[in-house]
# Entry
Amino acid sequence: MLHKKLAKKAVALAICTALLTACSSSDPSLSADRSPRPVKVMTIPPVQQTLSLSFPARLLPVARTQLAFRVPGTVTEIPVMEGQRVQKGDLIAQMDPHDFNVMVYEWEARYSEAMALLGQANSEQRRVMAATGNDALARVELDRANTAVTRAMAGVEVTNRRLQAAQDALRYSELRAPYDGIIAKVRLQPYEQAVPGISVVTLYGQEGYEVSFDVPESLAAKIKPGQKGQVAFNAMESNREQQKNYPVEVREVARAASMLAKTYRVTASLAQAPDFAWPNLTAELTLNLPAGDTPGIAVPASAVGGNINGPWVMVIENGKARKQPVALKGYDGDELVIRVIKGGLKPGDIVAAAGVSFLENGQTVGRLINNQDRARL
# Structure
């Protein structure tokens, strides 16, 4: 019985195989498609000798000052608030003036004493000079009188300087606005101790705005004062269609790197500030920098193949693929930046934008599908 069942299965398998063979031989539509495969391609555009780079930036007032006291003391009054507009000469903060007034009174008294001593020395000098003229006193007495006058005059000068210093200290106990502006930050409260040189208030002026951004050391040498660029502010991010670019011009390039990031601060002047300008507003600044002697070509990562011999791209010429060795320079956003090292790759050439690993050197290709993302030199 078992042998009969196996025999029946073998016969059925043979019949199915025969039927499939007959169908494949009789139906030409089931044969393998050996036509050249289509390729997604992109066109190399004309050469550009500049490289467009974007940097995160922020908007800052041209005039900004960290106001601090020049003398120590206890702050008794801060009549301003953050965001308040002030005019030149307005009181920003006041120290307790008691100790400074006491010092002024003391040196005023010493100055009066020094003036009295000078008057007494002058009188003595005149008396000695009269007596010497009549040969009533020796010459040594006149020298002593002259010395006393000189010392008295020096005492007056010293006390006068000390009095001026005390008066200055009293004046420095008041912190006043050096120009019209807006109070950006207040760092002390009444009855707290102020230390000389430590900022109490940040004041922003109203002379306009500038844009500040940081660049790595590899780009700092390429940025020069006078270079043009444009900036777009993130405040308009919700409406990209109406976002406006404002022209800027590089004004300063720092030559001292930051302590932590090792980047260099660049400042650009802004001819026209937006209506919604606000200190520390974030922005994106774009500069066109020289690309160097060997400008790179930005292509999608899918357009670059590679193995142990290095990276390459596939150039499509006369319906065939040609392997073109290249060198990697870096990244530009989501794209690779390549540089040709052998052979030729010029504007107008067509290269495969995807699937380069499945193409062989000299392989015939089929229909070309243009890629919407074009390469950039």
